[in-house]
User: Fold Alcohol dehydrogenase GroES domain protein from Streptomyces pratensis.
Amino acid sequence: MKAMVFHGKEQKSWQDVPDPGIQDPADAVIRVEAVTICGTDLHILKGDVPEVEPGTVLGHEAVGEVVETGSEVRGVRPGDRVLVSCITACGRCRYCRENRFGQCLGGGGWILGHLIDGTQAEYVRVPFADLSVHALPGAVRSEDAVLLADIFPTAYEVGVLSGRVRPGDTVVVVGAGPIGLATIATARLFTPGRIIATDLVASRLDAARAVGADVTVDAGEAPEQLVEDLTDGLGADVVVEAVGVPQSFEACTRMVRPGGHVANVGVHGRSAELHLESLWSRDLTITTGLVDTCSTPLLLDMMAAGRLPAAPALVTHRFPHSRMEEAYDVFSAAADTGALKVVLGPPTHDEVAPAG
Assistant:
């Protein structure tokens, strides 16, 4: 089969690799129908995630069809269309019993495209299939469902729930990429008083308004002053970091009010300064986290009911699998291409141009 293989810092290729097979009775093999590229994949290519070994197939988000299952799999069977979660869960360890699947001690957690071969391929082996794939209703399109593999549960769990967004809050989302946009959309479920989005790219600020931001501001035009003005000098109740660079994290700690929450969602490859000399007395809560995907069934129900933004709001580019390298080029140059989510897979019926 073909797959996108990591070969070291800034090196990757779409190449032939062996087909995956069942290695454990709890495995399933999925024929990948729709797959996407995550900002974390770019961090891997930058060398920010050193655990990824050269030769690993990248990717941790996909929708596809079950083609084979191990003898212990009971929840899905060949022919089922499923969502492949970015997190796998053994279901038995202490953390899994607490619904903290991202910290699984039994061989799960974030392993796809990280510690084992991932989803940017024609087929993928998924361990612990009963807890790590979700059967999809026919009403949910594949390119909508793939948004639930990572960005929506990550934004909802690590940003909104960890940030404790409440009705009436002022929420600031720093970074209006896919995770930031999903944070805006899911924060709205808690009826905050206002959501402020900041980013350096004008098209992303447009997208932020489209999914529910009340105020947008260019990151180069004094967003901290704007937050101060809009809150009468108090600061935001919740600030979500959705970029993953030191400057944005440090800005978050300056925009939050005393007693407020900073929820870090971004993947950081470099250290950021924690200015305790000015923060120690402000009674802040700062949270970090890897998504657990325990909210995926809930979010899937909400997507099916039309309560979450679907692909038209977030997917800007579509490619066949064979153009994976081009898709990476487009996604990695988002400031120039306007890319948000990039989805690869066969065209749906409404995307096929009529003859002539």
Notes: The mean pLDDT is 95. DSSP finds 14 helices and 15 strands in the chain. The first strand starts at residue 2 and ends at 8. The CA atoms of residues 25 and 182 lie 35 Å apart.
